[in-house]
Amino acid sequence: MKSIQVKSRINANGILELCVPTGLPESDVEVVIVVQPIPSAVEKKSPEERGWPPVFFERTAGSLADDPIQRWPQDPRDDVRPTPSQES
After folding, report:
1. DSSP code of residue 40
2. Which of 11, 52, 55, 77 is 20 to 30 Å from the Cα of 24, by its Cα?
3. Which of 31, 27, 43 lies closest to 1, judged by CA?
């Protein structure tokens, strides 16, 4: 099996045309195609479009600045083994 990764563009008709040199001899092959959008090409959505209430982040950012969350000391766990680097 030979994996070949290429970047291409889907045309206005929604068709992806591929011409991929494989370097393999003439023969029958099975081809698997996975189409994955490139993140920079995906339309970016606003927080509201992602389901957040309007101005949610503007209202909540920094809301705990005067009353920070404290993490209290934790009881040691008996079932944790040291990593090899901690044993020496």
Report:
1. G
2. 11
3. 31
| Residue 47: Cβ within 10 Å count | 13
* Cα gap 21→8, rounded to integer Å: 14
Q: What is the pLDDT of residues 9-62, one digit of tens each?
A: 889 999 999 888 888 899 999 989 888 888 764 567 888 888 999 999 888 888
What pLDDT was estimated at residue 53? 93
Q: Rounded to whole angstroms, how far apart are CA atoms 31 and 4? A: 10
Q: Which residue, 27, 26, 34, is CA-closest to 4?
A: 34
* Token code pair at residue 5: 């990764």
Q: Name the amino acid, one letter, at 64.
A: L
- In the structure encoding, which two tokens stand for residue 10, read together? 């889907």
